[in-house]
Automatic annotation (TrEMBL):
<dbReference type="GO" id="GO:0071555">
    <property type="term" value="P:cell wall organization"/>
</dbReference>
<keyword id="KW-0326">Glycosidase</keyword>
<feature type="active site">
    <location>
        <position position="316"/>
    </location>
</feature>
<dbReference type="GO" id="GO:0004650">
    <property type="term" value="F:polygalacturonase activity"/>
</dbReference>
<comment type="similarity">
    <text>Belongs to the glycosyl hydrolase 28 family.</text>
</comment>
<dbReference type="InterPro" id="IPR006626">
    <property type="entry name" value="PbH1"/>
</dbReference>
<protein>
    <submittedName>
        <fullName>Exo-polygalacturonase</fullName>
        <ecNumber>3.2.1.67</ecNumber>
    </submittedName>
</protein>
<keyword id="KW-0964">Secreted</keyword>
<keyword id="KW-0134">Cell wall</keyword>
<dbReference type="GO" id="GO:0005975">
    <property type="term" value="P:carbohydrate metabolic process"/>
</dbReference>
<dbReference type="Pfam" id="PF00295">
    <property type="entry name" value="Glyco_hydro_28"/>
</dbReference>
<dbReference type="GO" id="GO:0047911">
    <property type="term" value="F:galacturan 1,4-alpha-galacturonidase activity"/>
</dbReference>
<dbReference type="InterPro" id="IPR000743">
    <property type="entry name" value="Glyco_hydro_28"/>
</dbReference>
<keyword id="KW-0378">Hydrolase</keyword>
<keyword id="KW-0961">Cell wall biogenesis/degradation</keyword>
<dbReference type="InterPro" id="IPR011050">
    <property type="entry name" value="Pectin_lyase_fold/virulence"/>
</dbReference>
<feature type="signal peptide">
    <location>
        <begin position="1"/>
        <end position="25"/>
    </location>
</feature>
Length: 476
C-alpha cells in the first residue's frame, strides 16, 4: 500500500512538471532514450530561476557546429545581454551582421598606419549580410588608400562615423575619373558623418595641376564619389583639400545630401565642390562650400534636382554646366536652386554651354530667393563658354535653353555688369524670365547694368539694374 502511494506521488509530480513545461511553451528536448534533457543555459524553469548548464557542457557552440549561430563576423561588436539575464541574439542571427567596428577589425586610426584592409574587411562582411548592418568608425584619423565600397549589398548598410578619413599626401596618377573613396551601386544606404572629415591632402596636387592651361585634370582622384545610389542619404560629412573635385553624385536616384561641408582654399584648381550629373530626384539641403571652382555644378542628365540653403564662397558660384562639350549628353530638366547665399565669388548663378556643341537641352530651371554679397556677375547665361581656348570659335552652341527663371535675387555686384545673358545665335533661348531683381554696384565705374545678346527676357516686378541696356560680350 505504501509502495502504491509513493508511485502515485511520483506520477503526480511528473504530470505537474510536464504541464508547467507545456504551459511555458517550451518543447521537451529528449536526450538519451527515456530521459529529459537539462534546460538550456539561461532558460526559465519552474520556480522562476535560471537553469544551470549541465555539468561539463560547453557554454558556446563550437565554430561551424550544425544548427548553432554563426560566429560573430570580423569586427562585430557583441550584443549586450537582454534585461532579465536572457542572452541577446548574437551578431549574425536573423541574417544581420549587426554592428561592425573598424577598430575591432584592426584599424588604428592614428593617422599614419594604413587602415585600408580593416575598412575593406568590415565592408565585405556588412555587404554580404542579408539583414541591416552598421559599420562604426570611432574617433581617430584613418589613413586610407583608394577604396571602393561596392554593392549591390544583400541588406541595407549604414556607415556611422565619429572619426575622420585621410588620403595619402603623395601625388600619384590614377585612372581617369577615379575616386579616392567610392560608394558604388548601393540601395537604402546611409552615411551618417556626424561632422566627419574626408581629407584629400591635395596641396601638393594643386601645384602639379595644369588644368588652367590645358583643361586636362583626370589623372587626379576625386575625393568622394557616390555612383549608382538609390533611396539613400548622405548626412553631415565634410570634404577638405581634395586633389580634384570634392564630391561627385552620378547615376543616382532619390538621394538626399544634408549638412555637407566643402573646404579648400581659392588656389585649389578644378576642385568643384559638389558635382551632380545623370541623376534623378537628388536633394542637396544645407551646405557650406569654400573652394577654388564651382561650389555646386550640375551636369548633363540631371532631372528633378533641388539645391537649397547653400552658402557658397569663395568659389565660382552655382552653375548648370558646362554643357555641350561632349557628344550624347542627356537633357537637364527640372532644376531648382533656392534660398542660397553666395559671397565673394567670381560668378553668382549661371548656365554655361560650349560653342560648337552637339545638340542638347536644358529646361525648367529656377534660381530664386538668392542673396549675393560682393559677387562678380551675379546672374549669368553664357552660351559662349570657352575657358581653355580650345573650342570652335564662331560656331554657335546647339544647347537649347528654355523656361529659365531668375527670381527674387538681391545683393551687391563686384562688377558693373550685374546681369549678363548671352544666348546662342544659332539656337536662341526661349522664355527666360527675370523677376524682382535688386543688384547694386558701388564701384567707380558707376551703377550696375544689365547686358543681353541674342535674347529678350520676360520681365516682372522690380528690375535693378534695368535689363538689357547694353549688348553682352563674351568673356569676364
Amino acid at each position: 500500500m505504501v509502495g502504491l502511494r509513493r508511485a502515485k506521488t511520483v506520477l503526480l509530480v511528473l504530470v505537474v512538471v510536464i504541464s508547467n513545461t507545456i504551459a511555458d511553451g517550451a518543447p521537451l528536448d529528449r536526450g538519451p532514450k527515456g530521459s529529459v534533457a537539462a534546460a538550456p543555459l539561461g532558460a526559465t524553469v519552474p520556480g522562476g530561476g535560471n537553469a544551470a548548464a549541465p555539468v561539463g557542457a560547453a557554454t558556446t557552440a563550437p565554430a561551424g557546429a550544425k544548427g548553432s549561430p554563426a560566429a560573430a563576423p570580423v569586427g562585430a561588436t557583441a550584443p549586450a545581454a537582454a534585461a532579465g539575464g536572457l542572452a541577446a541574439a548574437p551578431a549574425g542571427a536573423a541574417g544581420a551582421a549587426g554592428s561592425l567596428d573598424v577598430k575591432a577589425a584592426g584599424a588604428k586610426g592614428d593617422g599614419t598606419t594604413d587602415d585600408t584592409a580593416a575598412f575593406t574587411a568590415v565592408w565585405k562582411t556588412a555587404c554580404e549580410a542579408p539583414g541591416p548592418s552598421t559599420i562604426t568608425v570611432p574617433k581617430g584619423d584613418y589613413l586610407v588608400n583608394n577604396i571602393e565600397f561596392l554593392g549591390p549589398c544583400k541588406g541595407p548598410v549604414t556607415f556611422e562615423m565619429s572619426g575622420n578619413m585621410k588620403a595619402p599626401a603623395t601625388v600619384a596618377a590614377v585612372k581617369p575619373n577615379s575616386g579616392w573613396v567610392d560608394f558604388t551601386n548601393l540601395a537604402d544606404f546611409t552615411l551618417n558623418g556626424n561632422g566627419a572629415i574626408f581629407d584629400g591632402q591635395g596641396s601638393l596636387a594643386w601645384k602639379a595641376n595644369d588644368c588652367a592651361k590645358t583643361g586636362k585634370c583626370n589623372s587626379l582622384p576625386i575625393n568622394i564619389r557616390f555612383t549608382g545610389l538609390t533611396n539613400s542619404k548622405i548626412i553631415g560629412i565634410t570634404s577638405t583639400n581634395s586633389k580634384l573635385f570634392h564630391m561627385n553624385v552620378l547615376n543616382c536616384k532619390n538621394v538626399t545630401l544634408e549638412n555637407i561641408g566643402i573646404d579648400a582654399p581659392p588656389e585649389s584648381l578644378n576642385t568643384d565642390g559638389i558635382h551632380i550629373g545623370r541623376s534623378v530626384g537628388v536633394n542637396l539641403i544645407g551646405a557650406k562650400v569654400k573652394t577654388g571652382d564651382d561650389c555646386v555644378s550640375i551636369g548633363d542628365g540631371t532631372e528633378n534636382l533641388i539645391v537649397e540653403n547653400v552658402e557658397c564662397g569663395p568659389g565660382h558660384g552655382i552653375a548648370v554646366g558646362s554643357l555641350g562639350r561632349y557628344p550624347n549628353e542627356q537633357p537637364v530638366r527640372g532644376v531648382t536652386v533656392r534660398k542660397c547665399l553666395i559671397k565673394n565669388t567670381s560668378n553668382g548663378v549661371r548656365i554655361k554651354t560650349w560653342p560648337g556643341s552637339p545638340p542638347g537641352i536644358a529646361s525648367n530651371i529656377i534660381f530664386e530667393d538668392i542673396t549675393m554679397d560682393n559677387v562678380s556677375t551675379p546672374i549669368l547665361i553664357d552660351q559662349e563658354y570657352c575657358p581653355y581656348a580650345d573650342c570652335k570659335a564662331g560656331v554657335p552652341s546647339k544647347v537649347k535653353l528654355s523656361d529659365v527663371t531668375f527670381k527674387n535675387i538681391k545683393g551687391t555686384s563686384a562688377t558693373k555688369t550685374a546681369v549678363k545673358l548671352i544666348c546662342s545665335v544659332g539656337t536662341p533661348c526661349t522664355n527666360v524670365a527675370l523677376a524682382n531683381i535688386n543688384l547694386v554696384h558701388n564701384g567707380p565705374e558707376g551703377p550696375a547694368v544689365g547686358a543681353c545678346a541674342n535674347m529678350k527676357p520676360v520681365l516682372t516686378g522690380q528690375m535693378i539694374p534695368p535689363a538689357c541696356t547694353e549688348i553682352a560680350k563674351p568673356g569676364p
